[in-house]
Amino acid sequence: MPTPHFVTRLPAELRAELDQRLRSSGYRNSTDIAAWLTESGYAIGKSAVSAYGKRLKKADLVLPRFLSDGTPETQAAFAALAESLFQCWLAFERVQAAMSLPNDPGPAAT
After folding, report:
1. What per-residue confidence (pLDDT) applies to 41?
2. How far apart, in whole angstroms, are the C-alpha atoms of residue 22 and residue 101?
3. Closest to 38 (Cα-Cα) out of 77, 57, 72, 10
4. Which residues of 65-104 are buried (b: 16+ CB within 10 A; e: fewer)?
């Protein structure tokens, strides 16, 4: 059975720091970030960090398009929505791993 995505095992403050480190490094530097996570008590490989960085970058590329227009209230609502969607995606990955579902089920059978 696949293991749950490593991000789901991190405390919220450590995940926030991980996201910040990935963003500030241009979503690179996975070797150093993996070493930092290991020093923090979470043995995570650089490949897993790199894969998560790619997903985070995709999420970060979508959000600015929604935040560029509108009132501060609208921007705050979109930011909260984006965070909720990201959390749903992580929860889905946990369920997917627990149920051993394939990553890409492909087209539905007719």
Report:
1. 92
2. 28
3. 10
4. eeeeeeeeeeeeebeeebeeebeeebeebeebbeeeeeee
CA–CA dist 50, 34 (Å, integer): 9
Q: Is 102 left (phi over 0), alpha (psi -120 to 50) or beta?
A: beta
Token code pair at residue 39:
């020093």
Q: pLDDT by residue (tens digit) across 55-97?
A: 888 888 876 665 566 677 777 777 788 788 888 888 887 787 7
What does pLDDT average to over the chain?
79
